[in-house]
Amino acid sequence: MNLNPETLTLELKTPIDMKTKIVDILLVEDSPYDAELTMAALFAKNITNHIHHVEDGAEALDFIFCRGAYEGRDFQHRPRLILLDLKMPKVSGMEVLRELKSNPLTQKIPVVVLTSSKEEPDVENAYRLGVNSYIVKPVGFENFAAAVSEIGLYWALLNQPPN
Q: Is the pTM of this model over 0.85?
């Protein structure tokens, strides 16, 4: 992959019409740099054109459950995949995961934790709550971009979720 981290200038908030647009991937990431790298890696491999980025767990829950700024969004247009960081402001990634997987309307949405935490209690708790995959963010730009591309390829294009 020939991405240069010095020249990344993606717009982090992809403007979409929340009432009609389908979001393939919901990226829940508080680090602007990691969010930019993630989106650049997905776009570079043409994995998806429909990514929506939110910066904290509270906004993620608002998006998913059509509350607050996302009140007009069609709940039936759920993301095909949620990439979720754990350590975030307002509402943690674990709490987002807990709410998603405890609700029958959202529990089938694949959630991939993409985090810097290698702590075993975090891994165990995430799987206990129903995460579909737990990935520790690789160190280094090329390794990170390659890992995100593979995640996106599998979960957004190859995986067949239930209806």
A: no
